[in-house]
Design brief:
The chain is an alpha/beta fold and 417 residues long. Helix content is 37%, strand content 14%. The chain is elongated and about 85 Å long.
Amino acid sequence: MNNSLLPPMRILDLTEGGCMLGGRLLGDTGADVIKIEPPGGTDSRIWPYYRDSQDPQQSLFWYTYNANKRGITLDIRKPEGQEILKKLAASADVILESYEPGYLKKLGLGYDALRAIKPDIIYTAITPFGQEGPKAHYAASALTVWASGGYLNACGDPDRAPVWISMPQTFLFGGCEGAIATLMAYYYRMTTGEGQFVDVSMQESALSPNMNILQMWDLNKLDFKRVGSVSYVAGTGVKQPIYFKCLDGYVMILAIGGNEPYVSSSKALVKWMAEKNMAPEWLQNLNWWTEYNASRLKQDLADKVGRAIEAFTMTRTKEELYLVGAYERAILIAPVADTKDISEDIQLKARNFWVEMSHPELGRDIPYCGPFICLSETPIQYRRRAPLTGEHNKEIYGGELGMTDAELESLNLKGVI
């Protein structure tokens, strides 16, 4: 493949759900990724759908994580399907899968079986809890994996139950780390000629954002407590509000004292409030160096300052608060962006982040999030939208495995492809 980051690499993608992100990342960087789904389509063609069509062929979830892949259908539970997968494996560099540990081995499609066909193959298995251990065969959802990784305990307000990130993340973590590990194994193969089995645990992937929290316990026996949407002063336990409502959402303002650049920023904010007759006299006289110093700050004063600031922000939009506050007055303030804000973000537009991808069956192009990295010599290319169900059956089975139309029709009638 011309101008590609990766050397020619073929991947058979048997992952589902968010784990499909791994194949997407490798496809973006130039690999030939063949997404394999059951005849009739996979359950991963889920909501949300294009213009709420309810058509699995128009799943935006599927679009997102399967762009830059070709797609075939194959029932690997049937003997004919297993033989076809083995033929495909003979020319593959990587197998990506997210089945329960041992499932493919029972079908005769595990690492040892495929290594016998292709000795240097890299076999990456992504599972909720890894291939071994007492929880290896536990069923799991994104929520349970998130909880088992400890991250839920750090999310939410301290006086309420933990909350989760509304967009499921753990399967995406697994897919992403699966792609990274696959590249590491591929590099090892380039230097030694040897393939290997890669075991990715989503629970362990979900632990990685908690590394500093775990060290707090390991080294000091301190159990991290979730603090909610505030800036927590560990020495006094005081919580300083940093998120404030405004006319069209929320902004974040670091109204903090004690040292720079926070003191200058906080004083600039109060000056702006005073010019609009919205700064009480006590706030204008507040000494941000001493009275609002974290070492002696009291909760009552922090709450009082927070209420005064929010009374001001509630009279203005995110854009005004950000453009005037940050750019003209050097206040440490940032808008809390929603989806619409992101789609209209001037920085992303200036960097040509959005990429239009053609969807002929819809008669239009659709904007996609752009490359996750920008490479000067081998830029990421968006070559194709996600495949329709079985879209490349004839191209791969007929063109690459040499099957005749009659054979393909027979396999179709048997429900193999």
